[in-house]
Amino acid sequence: MKQKMILLGAFLLLLLAACASNSDTPSNESSADSEEATEQEQQDELVIYLVRHGKTWFNTTGQVQGFADSQLTDEGKEQASIVGKGLSDIEFISAYSSDLGRQRNTAKLILTENDSDTPEIIEHDGFKEWNYGGFEGKTNEEMWNPIMNSYDLEFDEEWSEYGELVDILGDDGIADAIAEHDPLDAAETYDEITDRGKEAMDLVVENDQSGNVLIVSSGSMIPTLLEILVPGEYQGESIDNGSVTILKYKDGEYTLETLGDTSYLEGN
Length: 268
Prior knowledge:
Layout: H1 2-43, E1 46-52, H2 57-61, H3 74-86, E2 92-97, H4 101-112, E3 121-123, H5 140-149, H6 162-181, H7 190-207, E4 211-217, H8 221-229, E5 244-250, E6 253-261
Parallel strand pairs: 1-4, 2-3, 2-4
Antiparallel strand pairs: 1-5, 5-6
Helix pairs in contact: 3-4, 5-6, 7-8
């Protein structure tokens, strides 16, 4: 009798162990399937790193800089290199800028720090800064104060009331106000700016449907691109030199992940 009880106990233990083993299998398979699905989802999306160029001479002197160009300062070059080091583990399948030297050279310096093989930079006018027409090269105060004063605002070097102007006029209203005040009648309207921006972004998604893409642009054009792609997400936040904005594109939809991130530059 005692022997039968021992055999019965051993059988029950084996049965319990088999059940536990069988119950683990679906869980492990489910976990593996979930990880595979997440990896596949990441492979199917386009991640866009939208970077503002490094600091330039005109940024330093407080001059209007749109289609006009000035070279990167030593600080601007360092900013680009620091951002490049921060993004060094990102494998870029494509890289874009315009033919403006400050954008092109920032993109080159970022890619120089990359750990992977880097793509050739594709240049497109859609990533150029706004064309400020007759205000190009003049002081920021000369361009901004007539517009801001109309709304009891005032321009300062910290751009402290610019967000309020955005709240009042929006991106489109600001561009059209500049064009309206331009003494040469040469500044771009908002429609002209967005037309070339849309064309540039269409090219990006046509070229690549998934992977990581670097785009170097400028301080007014980046908010315009955001308004085109993720309307209402930009609310006048500062887009500083060397800041990184991250967008994701999947199934025809853009989402904003990070806006004007300067953490790569902090402490440097």
